[in-house]
Design goal:
Length: 512
């Protein structure tokens, strides 16, 4: 037992060291932080004060971050501290419960520290660490490696899945087959009620979002998926996203494939249920064209794959285990850079060509934890300086593209919107601007005539009458008194598509 504790302690401490050396924060993390800062300082859960727009897609992560920020009062260390703490929790659960076999634990640990997808997004300030933790605990409880009371098992699994969906809505696909299997095993009213009860936090947030913002889905959903880009083009970009992962991080996809094959071909029904959820999510990634951030969407599936592989690894003889370890080292070190080392450079040319970026390499020089010191206030980036300048100049309305660092440091007095429509409710509902190069998830919109003047003056000055009428109704949702009957009825009508003809008429005018 002492030898086991010693080995596990070493693995944990080495992971901590690697995590501290590679920790970073991306620009997108500060998009959430601006909303958190507004909330903490009494401006509501808004992006631009006076306009209720949900610019974050991870409510549970945002709530945790708000609690940390309310105590610390410092953005950088709130973001990176929460990321580090939750990721250390992931490793603690993994080495404590993923396997009883020491060689299997060491093998799994090696997989984790060699994966760019997992290690890069164990920090970054985004919601991945919490998604990792919830997915890992769900898998270990579902496979009965974490014991729970039998009469509470279904509710606990449902609650873990519900919290995971509250953390990021699209991860529901990962849990659906397992939850459906639980319901199928016992098609009773009690089982159904247990499954529904676990999703109560998510349902409560959805009701809040519908009332407060006017929509259940975050604004980023409309900005990233409401683009009118031909679906064949999106599928082509999905292929590129997968190919990028093969070239940049070959270990991650190889482990995912091995985990799926071992689970789907095996006799263990529960492993197959987890694997089916992973297949659904992999299909979803391909269907939407992947993401701008290399590896981000693969990190949670990778961790689940590692958890599925360990029981199979335990059955190998020592020669096979040694060969598997060598193969993992080979694949991990085949990547252009080692995941466990700070990035040396960023390949801008490849990012421009593929539309997929190594985000950690891009932002590490500005936000890497190892760069912190007396002469460095992190993040140290031109967008931070630009945001501070906007705040000092008291610029009323700013339009740009990198709005995370800039938006946070510009402060609540500057109305910040972006060409990609992540923070603007009207632009998010307009299609992509024709003829412009776009990156997946960051798709530029054309700003309608009179819109910026409308924002600066708080009066509707949009030139096109149909779009002006549409914006008038949209503004009732985002700006009117929360409790007015006109607003509540407009929420219902807007979500039922009552005002889409106005938008369609504007788009037809633009087409001609």
């Amino acid at each position: 037992m002492s030898e086991r504790k010693a080995l596990l302690s070493i693995l944990f401490l080495v992971f901590l060291t690697i995590l501290l050396r590679t920790a970073w924060l991306g620009d997108d993390a500060y998009i959430t932080m601006r909303s958190v800062d507004n909330w903490v300082h009494g401006y509501g859960l808004t992006w631009n004060p006076g306009e209720r727009v949900q610019t974050f897609s991870h409510p549970l992560w945002m709530l945790l971050l708000a609690g940390v920020y309310a105590v610390l009062g410092q953005a950088y260390f709130s973001l990176i501290g929460l990321s580090l703490l939750v990721s250390l929790g992931v490793m603690a659960v993994f080495i404590a419960r993923a396997s009883r076999d020491l060689s299997a634990l060491a093998f799994g640990w090696l997989l984790l520290v060699l994966s760019h997808a997992f290690l890069d997004y164990s920090t970054s300030g985004l919601e991945n660490p919490l998604s990792h933790l919830l997915a890992l605990v769900f898998v270990l409880v579902f496979l009965e490696r974490i014991p729970v009371p039998a009469n509470r098992r279904v509710f606990i699994l449902s609650l873990l899945a519900g919290l995971a969906v509250l953390n990021r809505m699209d991860t529901l696909l990962l849990y659906l087959p397992a939850l459906a299997g639980l319901l199928w095993q016992s098609k009773t009213r009690r089982r159904l009620m247990e499954l529904v009860a676990g999703f109560i936090p998510f349902l409560l947030w959805s009701l809040f979002a519908l009332f407060y913002y006017g929509f259940i889905f975050p604004n980023t959903y409309y900005a990233k998926l409401n683009t009118a880009i031909p679906h064949t083009t999106l599928l082509h970009q999905g292929v590129i996203y997968y190919l990028n992962e093969v070239l940049f991080d070959p270990l991650t996809l190889a482990v995912i494939v091995c985990g799926l094959l071992a689970s789907l071909a095996g006799a263990e029904r529960r492993q197959r249920a987890i694997a089916f959820g992973m297949v659904l999510y992999l299909g979803y990634i391909f269907y939407i064209g992947g993401d701008l951030m290399s590896g981000r969407f693969f990190s949670i599936i990778f961790l689940m794959s590692v958890s599925l592989l360990l029981p199979h690894f335990e059955k190998f003889n020592w020669q096979t285990k040694a060969l598997a370890g060598l193969a993992v080292l080979f694949l991990g070190l085949m990547a252009p850079s080692a995941a466990f080392l700070p990035p040396a450079s960023i390949d801008i040319e490849t990012a421009h060509r593929t539309g997929v970026s190594d985000e950690r390499a891009f932002y590490y020089s500005a936000s890497g934890l190892t760069r912190w010191g007396r002469s460095h206030k992190l993040p140290e980036h031109e967008w931070v300086s630009e945001g501070i300048a906007l705040r000092e100049q008291q610029t009323p309305v700013y339009v740009g593209k990198g709005i995370g660092y800039l938006g946070f440091y510009a402060g609540p007095q500057v109305h910040v919107i972006d060409y990609f429509a992540l923070s603007d409710p009207l632009l998010a509902r307009l299609p992509v601007q024709p003829g412009l190069k776009w990156d997946i998830g960051h798709i530029r919109r054309e700003i309608p005539a009179g819109y910026l003047e409308s924002l600066a003056s708080a009066e509707n000055q949009i030139a096109d009458p149909n779009l002006a009428a549409y914006y008038e109704k949209l503004s009732i949702l985002t700006r009117a008194n929360l409790w007015s009957w006109e607003r509540i009825s407009t929420i219902v009508e807007f979500n039922l598509g009552r005002y889409l003809p106005l938008l369609d008429a504007y788009l037809q005018t633009k087409a001609h």
